[in-house]
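Researcher: Can you fold this with uridine-5'-diphosphate-glucuronic acid in place?
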Amino acid sequence: MNVCIIGTGYVGLTTGTCLAFLGHKVTCVDSDDKKIALLKSGQTPIYEPFLTELIAEANGNLQFTTDYAEAIPNARVIFIAVGTPPSPNGSPDLRYLSAAARGIGEHFDGDFTVVVNKSTVPIGSGNWVGSLVREAYEQTHGCKAGRRFAVASNPEFLREGTALSDSLYADRVVVGSDDPRALEALYTLYRPILDQTFGAPTFLPRPEGIGAVPLISTDLASAELIKYAANAFLALKISFINEIGHLAEKVGADILQVAKGIGLDARIGTRFLQAGLGWGGSCFGKDTAALVATAAEYGLSMPIVAAAREINFRQRERVIEKLLAELKILKGRTIGILGLAFKPNTDDLRDAPAIEIARKLLQRGCKVKAHDPVAMHRFRSEHGDLGVICCDSVEQVAADSDALILATEWPLYRDLFWEELAPRMRSAIVLDSRNALDRDRLVGGGFRYLSIAGSASGGDASHRSSQEIDLMEAAPRL
Ligand code: UGA
């Protein structure tokens, strides 16, 4: 099929690349000419494992342009995958969405076209996008749009860092529309994924045991709500284990054992029960806030979701409390932060807990040093004015520091020669805020080991899927 993707962020670029790899003719359009020039040269504006490789495999089926007139007219399915960043009052900024909808209305050729909301948009946006497309089409072409197009919602469940395998080997595909023709078109588009008939790329092998991928067809509003409900549930799962972790610390229990002990109950599941610093990134914070705000419009409160948010942001403060309890005085101390990205395998710094912790430490008069294997460049350009000393190696971070905080569990940090770091430090303290390090090894290497969620044993990756571990192993090492 001829497909157009508007927006080349994580979602747009991953979706476009995967669809092109599956054999569709895809044109990605973005108003940012620097991004498009970079993509045309075979590079990507984001760090995502195997993305450049898959773009190369899709070669010939994947085009990039800044021009709507080039991308839209022949496309039978147009995905809107533009950013919906939070505005100052917390509600999503829909400027880019509205511009994309108008652009579609102005440029589409009048043959039946499906307009798909792939961005996470407030519930009800499908109708709104439909009205913008219709209005722009009628103004431009001087005739009624009628049934020439239909709107669908096709929410995205990919995680940054594992975006390609999440898309190709999805747990499910959700499509929502009030027009059966749109559902039919999306079924055709996703068929290779649904039936798993495509030849797997060598660098992203098909996980063992994966069968047909379920397709969930719904009305528009249900698909929109599924996206928010999924993210909110994952977010509250993390906050739940962090709340239990706080209690575990008080009663002397080990949260890693507790997580495994409850997670092996198939009704609960082991994933997203990794206690620690809590969630960051561009999705959970924004989507839980939007869900609470949407409910409020209908006179409803969402106390569970609101509590999950509160617990999450409290975890960041607990890092400071832990350090205070240990060092007594923070003013004048040097604290090293290992990991800046909001999670491993990405260079995304949006709502990264490490950055908020750095800010809090600086406010308390600390000197802050930091290292990240991938996000350093982005950090320098986006947060260069924060006053954090950027280090090219972990050794530089450790030198004369009073404590190290592990903020992002990049695999390379687990495998450091910790024994050689301790003597470089003013006081060999490590706060493992992700429960990812080997406590015994650190203690043996002369460290005082602290965690923020009641872990006696330190890191344990056994809750992760083998695919996640494979991807982590593929990540850069020192
Ligand atoms: C999340 C969802 O997982 C995706 O399904 C969804 O498509 C995406 O948001 C989105 O809406 O676009 P993402 O934000 O990329 O994906 O990353 P996650 O892997 O979900 O991690 C989010 C945060 O939770 C990270 O800061 C991570 O460190 C933290 N986390 C995750 C935990 O603290 N504990 C866990 O057990 C799992």
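Model: Folded with uridine-5'-diphosphate-glucuronic acid in place. Residues 460-478 have pLDDT under 50 and may be disordered.
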